[in-house]
Amino acid sequence: MAGSSTRGPALPSLSNLGTRVLLVSLLVLIPLHLGRHAIVEPLIPVYIGTIRLLSPEFTVQSVDVAPEGAAETLGVRTNLSVPLLYAGRTLLPFGWNGSPGGGIEVGLSLEGLLEYPAMLFIAVLAWPASTRREFALRIGLAIPAAALLLLEAPLTVVAELWAILRDDYDPQGYCGWMIFSRFLMGGGGLALAIVLAGLIVAAARWILRPIRRAPRPQRDFSRDHVGNARLFLKPPSQRAVRLSAEEKWSHGDRTPSSNPQ
Fold first, then answer.
1. How far is CA 36 from CA 33, 75, 130, 150, in A?
2. Which residues contact 96 (CB under 8 A, 6 or more apart)?
3. Alpha-carbon span 261 to 248, nearest angstrom
4. Integer distance in angstroms from the first to the last C-alpha of the chain?
5. Which bin fits 226, alpha (ψ -120 to 50), beta or left (φ > 0)?
């Protein structure tokens, strides 16, 4: 219909949205809980490389998943890579020049590592989609966004390492990494996941939006292409009368027809 436009789905009611969130939460959290090892363990080399990139002052000795009470943690054991000048002191790595060995260990809960990606998928999948194609596109966009949120783990490890040094040697000092980590753990990480989910929903709808094409101009056949003059065509009846008159003239009847007064 002319003038009609394709709109997205109507806003869901609070009760409908709450029901969708509950069902989607079960569908997301249960697989993440059961497959937490399969998700986190392949990322360990990425975590090690990211920690070294963000803070080359530390070297990673080991990273492993170990039970801690009823939960499981990702234990990251580190050490200073070289002597470090910090807060007016020279800090030596454990085991440096025959000193006692050891390291600095930071533990992260596996459930906490998957918290932000879980919130992202819940928000993306619970919001109504116009078509199945839009729903599938959301999932495709959410996977790399969830992988980005999983990189919060090495950021937290680096923040905790510097926080340990600050608490021991410079309690009044400034630690930007710790401020950022506290922001994520204080709700900023969940807010970031929800914002990313909103961007994914909007991006999927924008990508699949209907493209309106401008109407093609119609040729005006009342104008010829040479002189741009109008072609007036006589009705068929007038052309037939004229043709019969010309035929009489060609057959020798050259007496003009008399017109009644």
1. 5, 15, 31, 12
2. 83
3. 23
4. 59
5. alpha
Q: What is the pLDDT of residues 52-62, one digit of tens each?
A: 999 999 999 99
Length of the chain: 261
Q: Alpha-carbon Rg of the chain, whole angstroms?
A: 39
- Return the DSSP state at 236: H
Q: Using pLDDT thresholds of 50, 70 and 90, give the confidence band for residue 232.
A: very low
Q: pLDDT tens digit string along 185-212?
A: 888 889 999 999 999 999 999 998 876 5
Find how far residue 215's CA is from the centre of its chain: 33
Q: In what order do the strands lie in the sheet with 71-80?
A: 58-68, 71-80, 104-109
3-state secondary structure of 115: helix
- Report the C-alpha gap between 247 and 244 in whole angstroms: 5
Do the bridges between strand 89-91 and strand 104-109 make them parallel or antiparallel, or are there none, so unpaired? unpaired
Helix (H, G, I), strand (E, B) or coil at 60: strand
79 Ramachandran zone, left/alpha/beta (phi>0; psi -120 to 50): beta
**8 A C-beta contact, residue 109 and residue 72:** yes
